[in-house]
Fold this protein.
Amino acid sequence: MEKNAIPAKSYSPLTLAFMGDAVYELLVRNYLVSEGNCPVRSLNRRKIELVRCQTQAKALVFIWPFLSETEKEVAMRGRNAHVGHIPKSASVGDYHAATALEALFGYLFLEDQGTRLGQLFALAMESAKRQEDESFALSNLPQ
């Protein structure tokens, strides 16, 4: 892919989030397929769990200490952007945090920082795995 001539910081945070949404979903799909062959229905169900805004919001909190100051600045621009609407299934806070994560991923993609994208995505998947383990543990507690 040809290097983008426009600096990524010059894009609006919602444009960065627009790109980051696609990048994040592609990374999730690649991650799921790399775990092994399974029915598409299962892949899609798991993909939805990983890209939903609640999971992305928790991932942002998890990766925050690992971000550079520039990355935090980009994420905060995304978090503070006026998104226009919030889905009924999401809280305002989760939706804004998910937008922040997507803006960050869009920024890193447009800046051609694939290695850093991979590092942060691995942390996001670690966050999701920990959430999954906690949910499993809580669901197995005696009633």
Q: What stands out?
A: Residues 39 and 45 are 10 Å apart (CA to CA). Confidence is low (pLDDT under 50) at residues 136-143. The chain is about 70% helix and 0% strand. The helical segments are 13-34, 40-51, 53-63, 69-79, 92-110, 114-139.
